[in-house]
Amino acid sequence: MTLPPEVKKILETLKEGGLEGFVVGGCVRDLLMGREPKDWDITTNAKPEKIQKLFPEHVYENTFGTVGVKTGSEDSVLAIVEVTPYRVEGKYTDKRHPDEIKFADNMADDLWRRDFTINAMAMDSEGNIIDNHGGRKDIQDGLVRTVGNPEERFSEDALRMLRAVRFTATLEFKIEKETFQAIQKNAGWLKAISKERIRDEFVKIIESDRAHEGIQLLEECGLLEYIIPEMREGIGVAQNLHHIYTVWEHNLLALKYTADKKYSLPVRLGSLFHDIGKPRSKRGEGTHSTFYGHEVIGARMVAGIVDRLKFANDISEKIIRLVRYHMFFYTPDEVTASSVRRLLANVGKENVEDLLKLREADRIGSGRPKAIPYKLRHLKFMIDKVSRDPISVKMLKVNGNDVMQELKDGPGPKVGLVLNMLLAEVLDDPTKNKSEQLISRIHELDKSSPEELAGALKKIQDAQEAEDKTLADKHYVQTNQD
């Protein structure tokens, strides 16, 4: 277990100053497991003022006494190493933050306040381990166990219940029995935690290799109800003759596929949520039940979820689009180039590759043996073929300035409405994307009412849906079969 030179230098500097210094927490756990630490934390009996004096190049802006020591390393993980005095914490009356923090004089008190045994170990510069709570044995046994009484630990910070699930997913561990029972008993405490903190832990579960097992464990612990209760609606909901799994099982298996493939966060979340609207759209029972419009319902539900958990706008928009358009219908011999252009316009060219990955996950999650059948390969060919055609307003041969100049008008909503109407027409026939033709059409559209112009985007969507339905009816299939 070799410490990086930057970390070792900090420990040596503390020692030369007559002070104690240990690496502590997750980095020790990772070293014992042969994993590369994602961050480095050092604890010491020095107070913040002394730490700052020993390390002039530092950052200090917090109430916990932590000093960020600048090492000059080119490695982002080691560029700033956090050095914190030993400390003990008061009661957590809000189940989120300690009422008070006091600096301690010894390592034992500092380790006692930590969440899990596997995170409550320290190591000196020579590699000697301090393990007062059996962390090494729990690593060997693959267990997540709280330091001391689990209910006390979770009452201090209820987010620790979610962290327990996250560690099982990322480390491939199990939750120790008493710790698990305490989570089940007190899952409702999670309501006291901010949505941002919940989101961050949830994302780490989704980004783990065992993401689907993490979601299943959230349900078993009773935590999912306080994070994404909408997902639970799919538990036990049978599907139709195209599916051998319930909605809940299908969504988890789709997530598993994207995790196995190391796909991005939006694709993983899109796969988990893609059929979330099915329970609310289900009509009938048995093998011929239907779920018409579940993708529209699901997109609305997902919009609420990502807003509640305060996801960034760009990620939110992508996930919503993936769920909304995952039901695209494609038959190589009959789908036209214009329908592919409309798909690109609706989904966004930048999201198409992720949409196809979601479709792969949908197929595998349904129990089908092949993720990328011929028709998906053909669709990729068609996308490449039409990718140079105009599929967005930016690709038109006229722009907003042209519209204002021709109509002798200033900026306003009408400019965008006219451009959207031009795009809707060009999607059907790319040969119309000529500046002279479009300018002529601008003057014709000037006579249209705002209501007529406002229907342009809906026209694009309706045309895609109408073509999908025509093909589906012709081939005696349901467009909700995937």
Automatic annotation (TrEMBL):
Signal peptide (UniProt feature, chain positions): none
GO biological process, one term: tRNA processing
UniProt KW keywords: Magnesium, Metal-binding, Nucleotide-binding, Nucleotidyltransferase, RNA-binding, Transferase, tRNA processing
Gene3D superfamilies, per database record: 1.10.246.80, Beta Polymerase, domain 2 (3.30.460.10), cca-adding enzyme, domain 2 (1.10.3090.10)
UniProt keyword annotation of Phosphoprotein present: no
Domain named HD: residues: 249-341
GO molecular function: metal ion binding; nucleotide binding; nucleotidyltransferase activity; tRNA binding
Domain Poly A polymerase head: 22-145
Boundaries of every tRNA nucleotidyltransferase/poly(A) polymerase RNA and SrmB- binding domain copy: 173-232
Cofactor entry: Mg(2+)
Pfam families, per database record: HD, PolyA_pol, PolyA_pol_RNAbd
Family note: Belongs to the tRNA nucleotidyltransferase/poly(A) polymerase family.
Name the UniProt record assigns to this protein: HD domain-containing protein
